[in-house]
């Protein structure tokens, strides 16, 4: 835990007692703050009270004595309209901040020189965060990883000069962190997302820009126009590209990433054969991670060692194992067509398991990748709609449930004459018709695959 000593003696209202909210309340109290916490979910309020957190309905609070409102990232700050607590705070002239802001203030107070790598982007931020942390750990550094990737930032150990914090930041968290000023700020890319919470694409981009605007070194992907404009405005020290030629920065070159200086390649990092970093999107993630690791102080050998040993993220193009030539890949986190596109573009011959609770737009945008699909195995509610989209372009088998789909795909992939047939779970759908979340869906796929005769775990 990071006790928030910078708020000692102050009264803090807190709304939202999910995982990060409860961690924030405990960290504030550990640092000497007085907390009044609330949530619309009575069970969460009861849990917080049982953990010793001060609770109370914020509607009944005397806001004249409140120093700050801590808002959980999932609670609307501005759109579609401010949460009622935000209105109460603004009426009383009380600042509204989040847990990342508390971490930044604590770092400034107790260890201003502590290395801090903050990472954002519409896509790829979790993989890049995990990859940076892995590279640094493999080099023997004391690394704390968290934020939007799983462990609440204030549940991590406190900042210190000999410890590196690698933190994934969502746009919601950035919007609540006005003093965010990392050692290395990484911004990967931008595409339309969360516009219900930010109003417009321009506002969304402006919020993302804050993460890199005050960083000591800004690592910025420049392959989309919004991000390229950000890089130009802030004069990013380390541009990253997998599509454009750079005179200076990190760019994709064949099967690797090269560091360019003055139009010349001065270092090369080979990604060939690293299964966890397949595809152009992972080349971008790797390039950003390489740039961040170099700023932290690692040499080329240490970075290459970390790249080669990176296991990947669970449920994101996770290589589960092989049976002969057949590779089984868990991409359950791909809950829409845009995410599934990354997986389909990374493999040449795919036995594709897809379906669930469909998102707007379906899978029609994936048509350019249909020639890579040997067969589609449909599950869940979206089966009829997806079968109609695939009709005449991809052979289809309606399987209904995941266990049937895995068995059928495994059997037919074993008979496929391609050099590396891939059984890919990349649903392009939410899981809620058959599973509580994508993690449970991915865990089920993994357990079904591991039960297949002859499976050899990747790396095993």
Automatic annotation (TrEMBL):
Protein name as annotated: UDP-N-acetylmuramoylalanine--D-glutamate ligase
PROSITE patterns: FOLYLPOLYGLU_SYNT_1
Positions bound to ATP: 121-127
GO cellular component: cytoplasm
Broad EC category: ligase
SUPFAM superfamilies attached to this UniProt entry: MurCD N-terminal domain, MurD-like peptide ligases, catalytic domain, MurD-like peptide ligases, peptide-binding domain
Keyword set includes DNA-binding: no
Entry function: Cell wall formation. Catalyzes the addition of glutamate to the nucleotide precursor UDP-N-acetylmuramoyl-L-alanine (UMA).
GO terms of molecular function: ATP binding; tetrahydrofolylpolyglutamate synthase activity; UDP-N-acetylmuramoylalanine-D-glutamate ligase activity
